Amino acid sequence: MTDFEFILGQCKKYHFTTWDDYALDECVKKLSLLTREELVRLYRNKWVSEDMRKEIFRVLFADKIGKREERIKTMPTEELIQEFKKKVTGNISLIRKEMRERYKANKGYDRSLITAAFNASLKSDQQWVKWQIRKERYGYSGNNNYSKGTTWK
Fold first, then answer.
1. Interhelix angle for 36-44 vs 50-60, to 10°?
2. How far is CA 121 from CA 3, 35, 82, 92, 129, in A?
3. How far is C-alpha 119 from the geometric centre of its chain's CA atoms?
4. From CA 95, how far away is CA 79, in angstroms rounded?
5. DSSP state, residue 150
6. pLDDT tens profile 54-107
7. Which pTM value belongs to this model?
8. In a 3-state reduction of DSSP, which class is residue 29?
9. CA–CA distance, 138 with 131 (Å, rounded to integer)
């Protein structure tokens, strides 16, 4: 029995029940021994559970998983904003997260660029910028009633 057949057999066995930890570990170890074609066949198979599919995906794209985040972190702010405005790349949530981190860390020109980009974006981004400005001006104490949505009497 090949590794591919073993993994597929285990996937069929555990399709209707939860995976046994030992069996899942054995299958994950054997994934690295399979060819790319076998991995794709497994990924598309109807018997494969979501947990196993995630593991197969990690093996298939192990070389590319960390590169996207690394590229976004090293990108200059101007390029980051251009990519954020295009909204075509599929990295919008990662770019938004990186821009928010840069906004909090920087007090200079980058902060004004990020503010302008967020103000031209979604309402949630606009609200986030307003909240950051309020926190900076007035300070934030998580214990006040105003932040919980209650009105003053």
1. 150
2. 49, 44, 12, 11, 11
3. 23
4. 10
5. P
6. 888 888 887 676 788 888 889 999 999 998 988 776 788 889 999 999 999 987
7. 0.55
8. helix
9. 10
